[in-house]
């Protein structure tokens, strides 16, 4: 770094102006397989029958464009009673219906593309696609509006089977050109000519469709339109004649679009949609005149479109067209769904190959065996069933065109089968599935084809057909894609004061991950997901001061010692002959110390012991440590090219877990699959399950369940997940390294709101930074993880006291910065912002809503006076508010606990009152309907999550605790917003440098005791003698320490040196520090003590079995610079902290008083409206003849009445908005469950047995692993470290200037040039 810059510190933020096997159980696998089979059958039936129905409806409309007043034939004679009444407006309705079916999808694409282009997301126009799609639109419109009206249904169907005309012609030409190629023998050419004959014959047969009907009498007049329609449609059906052989040719762009190698950009999409609409409308207008509709004018079209009446047949036609459009959308979704499941319809029953044949067979059956219900149904729409009208008087058994039509149909079905037939790929190949980008409503079967293409397979092209292809099974072939697929996962856990049970839980998960990682890396299957693994545990506040032999030492505390003993127990590591553990290495670091461990299957575990005297403690700063260490030092400091470092960043992931997280390897694999599938995902999180015992845990089980089922699923589907929990989330390294994320995360709080947003919910803030920078956060419901939840009432309230203000602060920050978030993040739309605003708004109104519910429920249940009940509830809640402002948190929590118990009994009254209201006002009453709907949706959601169904039982506890959590907890969180620590106000005073005041009696006793001690020492003259003895002891200690420091490099035990030649009876514990000595001598001794202490901790009774290492120079420099730049312990004066505390109190007052005032006004408004319900209510009658039960105030008896229900408008508005939120979340849940089910089907498909390798680690393997561990500690250069191992450069076209590493490099070079220019001017 000759330029004086730190590569690891290249990250920026911009200032802005104002495995043990699958986790699926056998019954789940069987159920999923059965469900998959059932869905496959249902989807195939819907696709096939839907295509037949759509084709028949389109053709029925097309054949009714021309008036057919005198139909002849068996069907017409038998069903003559079905009278069809038609007007010019009906004819206009037929034209508009066909136009709507064809052009509505294009209109949607046109608007969407225009909006994206308006945002600046354009692209290069692909002219070939525009021309071909325009030709297809012209061909289909000419056939539908002018040719089909002159034919009957049967002939329309056989004619539509001739669309593969150009595909057959192309195959014929390719075969003949191949036969005529120079250098072939006569026998070879003759054989190829014979192979070309069937294709030539099929082409001539299909070509006859352009002229065969012109040979008959003058009944068919579209002699020019017919060949134009057939040829244009056949050319426009470019997916039928473009295949993999066109890669690298003139049609390479079409090849890429067909197989989704590239997507159609917005510019091309806009041009295609516009041209298709323009061509279809133009042909329709021309057809109106060509069909002789001289009386049809614009007024008929306007009336048919805008005059809505279900009694008119033209309105019914438009509604039928809307139904067909919906059917087309459903069928395309089903095709995508089957492709996602890798379940493709059987080729012989695909709509493209079988729909014309089935439709033709049904038409023939209906015409030969007349069923008049068809005629009666069609008569309501002003339509007729048109059978053969040309050869009714023909004496023969068959029509003159019967055989040629049947051959057309057979050839069309065969070519359709050839196009959709399934291709078989090797399991090692990476397959892309795609659909036609355009929906063709007039011929929907063309838009339902799924094309598959292998990225690994080198297809023969039309240019180099006979050249040799590389053997895919060649073991010596270099597979860069395979290497690129190997990701690096850094598991990073943060620990503090976890219990042994919690530590054991997370270590068990880490050991399982270690086994899975080793199994996968040793497996030679190319298609199996593999990843490199490294585990880091960051121990916060892991050191403590102890006084031993008159010397103060810094030693690891009891929590680390407990962890070390637990680690030895779980790994089963044994001592070698020298009494050492070869897999344990201790290292001194600038932030404290480090323990490096080789786990049983080879994964390296780094335990970082943080000393809060040397580096900042708390979770956020531990996250900053591992981000800058793993991403800054390991990647940015690595001496590789920008492309390679970008590849490293893209393939590196950080798994953030807590010190008590429990998960299976499959959970990580699902997150990895998700991150690899979508490059725009910055983070993926799993389903968190709270564990523990007690009522509070039961409450949290249901709370977590509905939060994940509804809220997180809706956020995933309609936008982005707002919070990635730190207990189990996978972050992409390149996303964290981007601007305004990692660097901004190091920002210290400088304003009162920063303390709430930054430090109280660090996970939520990091998620907000990712979202605002443009990265998606997604939720994988199948990735399960468990974490211990607060079991006590006080612990739960204190946890939510931190979470609630932080969650609100980050959501408000995102809403206030919605323009930037929406501009950067495509997943965050204005509709999603509005949804989040409603959620946060109604969550703030929770206390008022629950308060009014309690009041009205108690009035209804106990028959008390409304005023009395209102005061009965105002007094306890008001008293709690007063306590929150004036007393300590322990008093607040005691009061809240007892009130929660009391209100749990009140909720029984709410249950009784609600049940009574449902019985009296019936289920159709608005409030009753909302409650029943909510309960039903919760039960339905539980049924959709069978593994979590039992959580619905805990809903009883959730219901009883609604007043506690929605009133008391909300108030406690908001009013204690200024408390920024885990514990009580006493902890706040300690953190701010203020002394906790003692009681007057306690202060007096302390003063008397101190005075007596001082007097005793003066009388006994011991002070001077103790001082002299201490000075002699300290001189001896200094000599021993100097000798120990000189010999420590030779591995001599420091503890032994310090203890030798000193009788045990002389080792007295010193009660005073060295500050009693002269200042210069004390400072010198203090430095020597600190230097010695840096090694003494390695000699403790449990750590002395570990080997010792030395931190490499490059890494030591990095840590020193990082601590100096971002992680130096914050030292503030009591005055500064008092200013912060005052600012937090002021912020608390503003927010708390505002929310209290709004809630009070809302509660008062609802109660007053209820008091004047007779005047200020809305009269509501659910249905005609509605009756409900009402109590007669005079007699006290219940009587049935037909009076309208009186609805409170304000309360009704709240219910409607809550119902809208619940409905949106339910839709999101359904879509997310569908996505999860697809993933489960894929998991079942790829299921195989795997386990721990049976090959034992040899001594060479152990030596190799330990040499790698030592290399990370002792290496003098970064190039030989872990970071540069195993990465290869990605493809050259991925070196984009928009990548993170390129942006950082440009910024660094710009800064260097600016600094150089300034130096030159000086």
TrEMBL record:
The GO terms this record gives for MF are: chitin synthase activity
The places in or outside the cell where this protein is found are: Cell membrane
Q: Does the keyword Repressor apply?
A: no
Basic and acidic residues bias (residue ranges): 1059-1070
Q: What class of enzyme is it?
A: transferase
The yes or no answer to whether the keyword Membrane is present is yes
Show the stretches that span the lipid bilayer.
Answer: 37-63, 125-145, 157-180, 192-214, 220-238, 270-294, 314-334, 830-857, 869-886, 898-918, 924-944, 956-975, 1151-1169, 1210-1231
GO annotation (BP), single: chitin biosynthetic process
State the InterPro entries in the record. Chitin_synth, Chs-1/2_IV_N, Nucleotide-diphossugar_trans
E.C. no? 2.4.1.16
Which keywords belong to this entry?
A: Cell membrane, Coiled coil, Glycoprotein, Glycosyltransferase, Membrane, Transferase, Transmembrane, Transmembrane helix
**Pfam families assigned to the protein according to its UniProt record, in alphabetical order:** Chitin_synth_2, ChitinSynthase_IV_N
Q: How does it sit in the membrane?
A: Multi-pass membrane protein
Major subcellular site: membrane
Task: Please report which protein family the annotation says this sequence is part of.
Answer: Belongs to the chitin synthase family. Class IV subfamily.
Q: Which PANTHER family match?
A: CHITIN SYNTHASE, CHITIN SYNTHASE CHS-1
**What's the protein called, per UniProt?**
chitin synthase
* Lineage per the UniProt record: Eukaryota, Metazoa, Ecdysozoa, Nematoda, Chromadorea
